[in-house]
């Protein structure tokens, strides 16, 4: 399958990233691949923040995976820093190849490098395959998450 590079996302990657975000029943309802301007503005904002890491996995010049890692300094847990993994997506052609594992391992390694004491993520309750995937990697469903649309 060729060599894999995990690197920061750039504007030229946005179309491929948005296509992956939209490539499932939930994403199809929330994403708008026809208008990339809000995504480009968001990427510019994110790339200006040293605690934000929007990454892409590239194989043979093609974006085949993505995730966002956010480093969050805190007061709880004796001033612990934690990281949050969001927006994990793997291109349909790459699912089952181990790419998702490589992306999550990158995020965990980067979290350690940034001296995080905890890495966390959420997954929609309807994504049963994703839940099994994260549990297989050592994550535990230890909390109940809440969200409020604004």
List strands and helices in order, with pairings.
Elements: E1 4-8, H1 14-21, H2 25-30, H3 37-47, E2 52-59, E3 62-73, H4 76-79, E4 81-90, H5 99-113, E5 118-121, H6 128-136
Parallel strand pairs: 4-5
Antiparallel strand pairs: 1-2, 2-3, 3-4
Quickly list its features:
globular; 6 helices; alpha+beta; 5-stranded mixed β-sheet; 150 residues; single chain
Provide a compact summary of the structure:
This protein is α+β, with helices and mostly antiparallel strands and 150 residues long. It contains six helices and five strands; from the N terminus they run E-H-H-H-E-E-H-E-H-E-H.
Number of helices: 6
Straight-line N-to-C gap:
42 Å
Strand content: 25-35%
Q: Tell me how many strands there are.
A: 5
| Net shape | globular
Would you tell me the overall average pLDDT? 94
What multimeric state do the chains show? Answer: single chain
Low-confidence stretches: none
Helix % is 25-40%
* Class from helix and strand fractions: alpha+beta
Order of helices and strands: EHHHEEHEHEH
Which strands sit side by side, in order, in the main sheet?
1-2-3-4-5
